[in-house]
Amino acid sequence: MPVRGMLVRLTDAWQEILQRHRDAGGYPAAVTELLGEMTVAATLMQANIKFNGALIMQIMGDGPVKLAVAEVQPDLSLRATATVVGEVAADAPLSQMVNVTNQGRCAITLDPKDRLPGQQPYQGVVPLFGDRREKLEKLSEVIEHYMLQSEQLDTRLVLAADDKMAAGLLIQRLPLQGATNLAGSSHQRDEDQIGQNEDYNRIAILAASLKREELLGLDADTILHRLFWEEDVRRFEPLTGAQGPRFACTCSRERVGSMLRSLGRDEVESILTEQGQVEVGCEFCGKQYRFDPVDAAQVFLQPAQQAPASDRKH
Description:
The chain is an alpha+beta fold. The chain has 2 domains: about 240 residues, 3-Layer(bab) Sandwich (Hsp33 domain), CATH 3.55.30.10; about 60 residues, HSP33 redox switch-like (CBS domain Like). About 35% of the residues lie in helices and about 25% in strands. It contains 10 helices and 11 strands. The strands form 3 sheets. It has a 6-stranded mixed β-sheet, covered by helices on one side. A hairpin with a 4-residue loop joins β3 and β4. The longest helix has 21 residues. The relative contact order is 0.14.
């Protein structure tokens, strides 16, 4: 059938993300759920398209959650963070957290690993409302809307997260036409249109019956059997350990130095005059980078003028 699915369950990686932010005060329950669902959705999309670069999902708006970010690398290493200003109710829906006046946006960026000169990352942006400007209250609805607009493919997404696990199930219709697709099958051409494939529609309805507590509480084999016990499911071996999703941060002293260069020498010198050093903390992993006046001066030197890395203080 022209239907494929992916199931992601994040445990250790998700708990490590939460622990790093818990040290700084942690997130309200509703924000934890939203950020977990974003991290799972980004992982599903990265694994689905196998893009050689970072996939970055961002949600921004005018609620107390000003910005939430999940980033997944091609090797499925991942990180996530959220900026929260104000109170968030434990059961707050997406509209109350991000989309109070219907101005919220979801951006998905594909940043190639080896960019060509002048090449810019690809970014798609969708609003947090539907075709009739109705507010979307679930992240899954936002992503389904994005996939329909950007890929022109039917997609069903089921997401769930708490403080122990983040999990998601993605079901997608595959195109029939094309040399490497199912063009030689018995399926009719009209089944290659949005909403017209009976196999996909049936599988998507079964997937949508998956409850939050089942997604978070049952193992993958049990979930697949309960949902698709009458279907011919071809199950691939799971990606786990070093091959699967895991927490990793891509911050570095060099990247922070580039950020300081973008601020400009005058701004950095102003901070040094006021504080004696420049201190920058990574919002994803919590690591602190400190630059004293000598370190800061090195940042603005040309590469040939910089002291060897071994001579610098870290």
